[in-house]
Amino acid sequence: MRALGVNIESENWNMTEDEALAVLRGAGFDCFFTDYYFDESKVDRYAQAAARHGIRWESMHAPFTEPVNINAIWRAGEDGDAMLDGLLRTVRACARYGVRVAVIHLSSGENPPAINDIGHRRLDLLVNEAVKTGVTLGFENLRKLANMAFVFEVYDKVPQVGFCWDVGHEACFTHGRQYMPLFGDKLTYTHIHDNLCQYNGDLHMIPFDGAIDFERVTRQLRESGYQGTLTLELLPDNSDRYVGVPAEEYYTRAYAVACRLRGMVDGKAV
Amino acid sequence: MRKLGVSINPDVWKMSEDKVLEVIRQAGFDAFFIGYLCRPDMEARMARCAEAAARKGLWFECVHAPFIDAAGQKSTNRLWLPGEAGDAECALLISCLRSCRKNGVGTVVVHLSAGDDAPCISDVGHSRLDRLVNEAVKENVTLAFENQRKLANLAFVFEVYNDVPQVRFCWDMGHEACFTPGREYMPLFGDKLVYTHIHDNNCELNRDLHMVPFDGSIDFARRAAWLKQFDYQGTLTLEVAPKKSGRYDGWSAPQFYAHAYAAACRLRDMVDGSAE
C-alpha cells in the first residue's frame, strides 16, 4: 500500500524530536519530513528517533529564509553564495542520513530576480551535488512559472531533478494554473495541504478543511502514474482552525485524511 | 463582426503582393500578415504591402519577425548566445520592428527559440530582449511572443515584462498540438493574448503542417472555448501554408484562400456563436 507522510517541526509542539516522531508513528504515518537544520545536532537527533520508531525520513525542506532569502541565489555576491551553501548542506545531510529528497524553492515573493547566469551556475553546482550523492532535488511550485520550467528544461536528462507538487501553493499563489499537466512527468514528491483558494492565503490546513478540489488533485495524481508517498505539509498555526488541538488528535485526524486521499488516488478501500 | 485574417506568402504562389492581396480580399478576409525575410528588397516589399493594403481596404495587421537568416539557417537561437551573430539577430528584429512602425503595422510576432535543443535563458539574451522591448515601447509596436517548443523562455518574457503593454502573447494553435502535445498555453498566458496563428495538423509530433483548420485533427471546439473564456476580441488569423502538407497540391490561390476563408468563418461562428 502506498506510503503516507507528513511534516513535523518538534519545536512547534514543544516536544523533543523523539516525542514528535512517536506521535506521527502512533497516528499511522509511514514517513515524515522536516526542515534542514543548520544546527546539525538536531538533524542527528531526528535520524536517531526515526530509526528508533521505524518511520522513514523521506525528505528535508531546504532553507529559503536563512541564512538569507532564497532570491539571493539569483544575485551576485556573498549572500547568494551563502544561500547556495545552505542548499548544498541540505543535500549532503540528506545523503548522510539516507533521506531521499531535498525540496527546493527557486524564488520567494512576487518580484524575485529573473533567471540569470549566476543563478544558473549555482543551480549547476547544486544539481552536480545531487547527482554525486544520489539525492533527488524536488523543485517546488511557488508563484513563478519561468524558473520551474527553466530547471526542468535545462536539467531534463538528470534523474535527480524532480518536481514537488505543492497542491496548496497552486491554489493560493497561482490559482488557475495547474502544474501537473506541465511537470507531472517529473513528479517525485508531494506537499498536500488545503486553503480557502484566496490569493496568498497559504493556510496549510488539513485536506478537506478548506476549498481545494481534491477530486481533481487525486485524479491528476492517478493519471500521472505517481507511485510515491502522499505527503501532507501541514502548519497548524497558519490558520485558527486547530487552536487548542493537541498533537495526537491533530495527527490522528491528518492520518485519516491521508488515508482518504490514498483511497481516492488508488481507488481502493482504505 | 470579428475580423478574419490570414498569412500570405507571395513567393509560394509566384505572385506579386498586390495579386495575392487581391485574392485574399476577394475570398473575404479583412486582415493579413507577412513574414519579414532576410532579403535586400524586404523594405520595398513592406511598402508595397502597405500601399496595396490601403488601396484594397485590407488591414496590414502584423508582420512575422525573421527567424531564418539569408543563408536559410534558423537564427533565433543566436539571441541567447554571446557574440556578434546574436547582436546581429537582435538588430534584425529591431529593424523589422521599425519597418512595422514605418508602414503602420501594429504587431510583430516573435519566436524565442527554435528546435528541441535551443539555448537556455541567458543574461546576454535578456539584455537583447531588453533592447527589443525598449524599441517596441518607443515605437509603440506590440511584440507578440509565439509558443514554440519551450515553455521557460515564454514564461520568462511574460514575467520580466509583465507590466509592459507592448509585450503580449501570440497563440499558435498548430504548434501547441504538434510541438507540445498535452500542454495548453491559454490557461498560462491567455490574459496576454493579442494575436492568433490558427492552423491544423494531424497532432503528430513535430509535423507542423499548417493546414487549413478542420482539415486535420486539432480540436477547434476546445480552442474556441479558450478564446471565449478569455474574452479574446481580436482577429482570428490563419497561418496556413499550401505546400507543407501535400493536401493542397494543384490548388490555385483563389481556391485555397476561399477554402481557408470558409474555415475561418466556421471558426468565428464557434467562438462568437453567431450565424454567418
Task: Describe it.
The complex is a heterodimer of chains A (270) and B (276). By secondary structure, chain A is of the alpha/beta class. Chain A has nine helices and eight strands. Chain A has helices at residues 17-27, 40-53, 78-97, 117-133, 146-154, 167-172, 180-183, 214-224, 247-266, and strands at 4-7, 31-35, 56-61, 101-104, 136-140, 161-166, 187-191, 230-232. In chain A, helix 5 links the parallel strand 5 and strand 6 (161-166). In chain A, helix 8 crosses helix 9 (247-266). The radius of gyration of chain A is 18 Å and the shape is globular. The termini of chain A are close together. The model of chain A has no long low-confidence stretch (mean pLDDT 97). With 276 residues, chain B is α/β, with parallel strands linked by helices. In chain B, strands 7-6-5-4-3-2-1-8 form an eight-stranded parallel sheet. The longest helix of chain B is centred in the C-terminal third of the chain and has 20 residues, at 253-272. The N and C termini of chain B lie close together (10 Å).
